[in-house]
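Action item from last week, closing it out:
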Amino acid sequence: MAKRKDSRKEARHPINGETLQAAVGWAIDGKIFAHLKVHGNTTWQFVDLVLLAIVWVWSGDARLTGAFTEAHRWSLQVLGRAAVGTFQGLLKSLVTWTARLVPLVGECLQGLMEKHGGRHWRVGLWLALAVDGSRTSVPRTQANERAFSAPNYGHGRTAKYRRKKTKGKRARRKGKESMQPVKPQIWLTLLWHMGMHMPWSWKSGPSYANERDHFRALLTEQKFPENTLFCADAGFTGYDLWRAMIDAGHSFLIRVGSNVRLLRRLGYVRESRGVVYFWPDRAARRRQPPLVLRLLAVQVGRCPMWVVTNVLEENRLSDAEAVRLYQLRWGIELQFRTVKQTFGRRKLRSRTPERAHVELDWSLLGLWLIQLFAIKEQIAIGEVPEHCSVGLAIQVVRTMLQQWSACAEASFAMQLRAATKDRYRRNRGKQARYRPAYKDRPRAGSPKVQTANRQHKTWLKQYLQTAA
């Protein structure tokens, strides 16, 4: 009798549509859409549209229309209604409302991350956010090529260098085909929560977009919690970008290489160990202030590197903490792999630019929601976010969509708690036996640190007179 009683208790939370509806309802509060006004002829509610869009991107069907059919059928059978009845109706509604709906839902998920993240919400003192960019492909239609392809592809300095380097090889190649036009791609700049291992926000644009411009736009458009620290690789350098973070009251930890020149002994502040200045000549001539930074030489694995931070106090950010933060930054690369490979968004399926952006935004939002479901359940039983297997969590959700009416012994929460990585110890490396040897692979190198000369002192004197 006791065994039967336990089975009944376990069956209270079956793997069915109601469990999914409750989970999404827990994450997305319908009140956040109360201020949005729709056309008088609109019959759907924003919550229903959001739920339909999320189930649409959760589907494992490779076709957009097939995924909509699955999501529409689920919505009718579980909710008894659907926001729209056709695929074209869904896409037209999302093209109109995505720009306003996605930020609202994102703020909801960020609040839940803080509420349920526990000790993983911050890494030490900091709310640590990694930033990086990547590209995802779209179908090669004329509309996508006009919107996303670089207009001057093949005419840059890097392209000319590679053509010159391989000139002999190309001349010896028989039956050489003409070079195909570049594939249209969307550039995605992602902010990624390093403590909870899930997205925070993002911005997208054409393939030739600048990730630093995207990052500056995110700094302007969004509000970040106190003691936010951004961690990035050597691509996020520049006086304007670093000053924007400092003026906004944020901290950063960024790798620097030979493309960065730093000064020492300028005399602008009281100097201590590791204090340097970033003050390009252009900023100095414009009488803009020098940026006071701390240069750290750290060892991450077998790779020596140099990072700079505007946190000058070692008791707030020690060398060991800087190494740990930069090691956690690598997780954003795994997030890109999850989006493209595990979630199947290496190439989007939309044939127009507006719909491609919609597909990408809701795909990222749907994946974020799955990760939040799984990591929230795993934190509750003492697991750490880096042990979460996003692939297994996606499989749990997709199985529930396909077999929504079938009851199971284990609840939705219990299956998500079990979606963790294998704990075995690897005895050999994962590096492939056959791999291309990129001899021209770029190296960051070490930054150029020089002592401030007489011209720098003159510029500093002029700046102080202007600032006074």
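Closing note: The CA atoms of residues 18 and 78 lie 7 Å apart.
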